[in-house]
Amino acid sequence: MRYYRPIIVGICVISFAPILGCGPTPPSVNPTQIGTGVSPASAKISATADLSKTLSYTDFYGGGADSQEPLSIAAAFAHKAGGTWVVFAPKPLDDLNPSGGAGRSYDGTERTIQSTMEAMRSAGTPMAWDTSKGYVLLDFAAPEDLKRIQTQPPVETIGLLLTGPTDDAMLRAFADVERIQIKTDAALLKKRADFRAARNKTEDSDEDSQDAMTDPTSSYRSSPSQQRTIDRPEFKVIDKLDLSGVMQRLGEYYGAEMVSTATGQWELKAYSDPAKINAEIARLKQPIDEAAANAPQPNSSFEARQTGQAASSDEIAQAEQMAIATPIGAEAIAAFDTLGTLGSPAVPALTDYLDVAKPQCAIAAIDTLNAMDLPAAKQALLTFQQQLSAPQKGSRSATARTALKTKLIKILTGGSSPEVKKMLTDAAFDPDAPDQSRSSARMALLKIGEVAPFQSSVQQRTLGVEPAFLLKTPQETGKSDTAADVAAKSITCITTAPAGLDTWAVFLSDRYGDPNDIWLARRRGGQWAEFLFTGKAFTASRSSYYSSSSVTPTRSCVLSVNEDQVTLGPPKGSSADDLAKITKDMSDPKIPMEQRTKLAQKYSMLQEKAANTLGSAMTLSLTELRKDTDHDGLSDLIEKRFGTDPSKTDSDGDGLPDNQDMNPLAGPAISDRATLLQTIFSGIYGGDKSTTPIIVVLDRPYWQEFLGASARVLCMTQDDYAQQMSHLAGTRLLEFTGPREAEATILQQDGPCLFNDAHTKAEAHFFFNNTASAQSAMTIMMGSGMPTPDYIARFERAGPWTLKSIRRWKFDTAMQVYLKSMRSVTSSY
Q1: DSSP H or E run through 130
Q2: What is the model's pLDDT at position 206?
Q3: b/e string for 165-204 if b means 16 or more Cβ within 10 A?
Q4: 603 pLDDT above the threshold of 70
Q5: Alpha-carbon dihedral sign for residues 178, 184, 190, 192
Q6: What is the mean pLDDT of residues 46-55?
Q7: pTM score above 0.70
Q8: Which of 469, 473, 556 is nearest to 511 (CA)?
């Protein structure tokens, strides 16, 4: 039998299994006093649950049912139906049969919550419910047990769930079932509700939706019921308790104590004795400390612990990533929430958990302190950020440190104090921070109109010298990689081949947009002397089933160079013909079964060996690869990728040759529109040292020069970008859009910008994608990825234009409509 120690889980949920017919009936009392109002115990509870709502699979499993235990299932029902629920479960740890679960039934009809509950009961789940008093009274037992609860409150409970639209409604329903009076302090209920609202705001922040996919700290809650939006009180206890025990837990949930003032009468009171507060904090720390002790250790690895040997830096990084991503337990989360409800006295205890060596506890403590909205709590977070940013010796905890810094940047986005502004500015220019962290810090400053840190009085229009690739041959690559190699992002060649005095190599690079772009390199006398862009992509024969890496392995193709001709092909033994022959032999009945079994094993080995190898051969001409018709330093193949004119040295006619021009497709522009767009560009990319190309999508009449970045900037139309998207997945994207129906607004439109009649206020719509992921752009276009959010920048001027704020835009923009149309066309094939 599973054993669960007594816990309070979630927002406000209590579970009990009633033992009915025991003990005297509690005296009947008339009023149930909640907060500032007094109402009869039999009064109906407002906001009745709607059991006619359709319950989809996502609602059922993503809305709270992290298991098939009765209280978890009831929580999913309540989350969807709304209203107030009191749920008893005599056997709260037994899995139930949901009879096909939610969604469609076997005959294809959609199920409502009501029909799902009826289907469960028909399938043999003991359950009965009643909604006559305005709340749902649900008992996972026989109907006669529910009737006994309605006439005689249970003396003992094992599983109980309480939830409602408000704390007031939830407590009224529970008091009605138990036939008791509960007198509360409105301030205590408000304190818990405010904390819940602040927590909800933290978890549903308007950060870029891609953060949620890439940031391991965004899902420290371990189950669907913990990860769902906490928008209503829920109180849950799984333990064998009498009424006094339940009331004690209920008081603890509110960071207070529930005192019995007379028979059947209870009062929720704030702690007045410091010793009791300290004792409660110590009690809450116990489940957190237990969770921390059982958490994965971030500075070791499984192999290192098994062998007793020191873990390598890669193993430590993987262990730290696992430690960060592993969610903390439900009991510990509940303890953090109650500490947050206690307020100021709990800040020192929560601060103690801001420890990079215990990242899961640190993440939970960060969210709790942020939701408390207290000066001391905010100061603790700023101090922790400073500690994380201080110089560190060694690489241990580097992954956890970076993740926690990113987490702090995301939650401190609303601050406007000098300390917060400085922290965000430092983070925006931190060369050791990941791109997403720097981007989050920038957006946090832009949201409050702080664009000055990213604007420079000297705007560079020319590119610096393009750095040479740092290549290593397969023979040179191994554990001897130095820190300098890692910092310089050295690239391991796929394969090499001699040709006279030269050695040729094949490697992949996303320098011009596609991570699968094939490049050739020529080495003579120990020095790499030439790098050639081929314009071809490495297309693997298939992906490895077992491989977790997206890096193309070495020797995944063969190379030969014969004068002007370069040939690339699959390695020997990996061709489809070899696999087809073995397949044919395996199905040949004339071959003995034992031999066919060996062939099957050989097929599996050969198939795995062939994974991620070049799918088909290709022949290239060195003359064509080197061809530069206009002699501007960019080969014709590179100019084709950029969209510049291979027959013109200066494609945009601004006096700068294409190979030096930071904006080879657009010259300077002078207008209010150009000023606003440049301000947005500066905010996102100004001062950034990354050389990853930036694509700016604009209608052609509005193309302009964008300054302030260190990378090449290419203007494209939506159609051009759609056609080139598969080759630009490694670039950064800034899309200037307009409202879906610009003509319906009261503002004057100028390209992607809208102005008022007096030209003193303006707004511009945009979205951007800085993930530089090989799949991001394509998955967004096809609708299978999480699209980046649209933003709206608002400007005002009394003299020069001033950025006032940047906020999420909630309605369709022109680009979103375009993407939707593209998806509909794609889905029709």
Answers
A1: strand 128-130
A2: 42
A3: bbbbbbbbbbbbbbbbbbbbbeebbebbbebbebbbeebe
A4: yes
A5: negative
A6: 82
A7: no
A8: 469
